[in-house]
């Protein structure tokens, strides 16, 4: 089931209302779902491999703590932050500015203009430091997304709340 962007995220506490949470695809909702965003975001950093290692280890530890509490939403949010650590550091590894496209496709008004903007990718400028940060986050993300208890809680959450 798709992530529901129509919820009142400013006033929702997903710890007390996990039934409203939808996994969605990839990192959807990672900067919306409270109180997890506020708990995890302060530790999310990837500027250098040393910072990425410390950050990814802390977030992975939070992931494990959420699992211990059978808190699927918290664990999934930690998994999303690990994934985002990988994707963002990979983006900066490939594009020094952090921008992939000349124009932001999401700011284009028509579908055709969005598709056209996606064709204008900025050239790659490989940064080995950011690439190392990406690899560090990817390793923790893979551990999280394949963790047995996470997969069990994911299946249970989908059975209970994401029927359609």
Automatic annotation (TrEMBL):
Pfam families: DUF4385
Name used for this protein in its record: DUF4385 domain-containing protein
Lineage: Bacteria, Bacillati, Cyanobacteriota, Cyanophyceae, Oscillatoriophycideae
Region (Disordered) residue spans: 93-112
InterPro entries: DUF4385
Composition skew (Basic and acidic residues), residue ranges: 99-112
């Amino acid at each position: 089931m798709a992530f529901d962007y129509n919820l009142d995220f400013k006033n929702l506490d997903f710890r007390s209302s996990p039934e409203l949470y939808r996994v969605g695809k990839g990192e959807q909702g990672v900067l919306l779902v409270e109180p997890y965003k506020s708990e995890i975001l302060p530790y999310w950093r990837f500027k250098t491999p040393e910072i990425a290692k410390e950050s990814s280890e802390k977030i992975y530890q939070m992931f494990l703590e959420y699992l211990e509490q059978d808190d699927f939403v918290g664990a999934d949010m930690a998994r999303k932050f690990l994934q985002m650590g990988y994707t963002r550091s990979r983006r900066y590894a490939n594009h020094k500015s952090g921008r992939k496209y000349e124009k932001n496709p999401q700011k284009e008004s028509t579908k055709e203009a969005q598709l056209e903007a996606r064709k204008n990718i900025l050239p790659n400028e490989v940064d080995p430091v950011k690439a190392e940060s990406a690899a560090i986050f990817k390793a923790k993300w893979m551990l999280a997304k394949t963790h047995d208890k996470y997969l069990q809680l994911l299946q249970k959450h989908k059975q209970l709340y994401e029927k359609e």
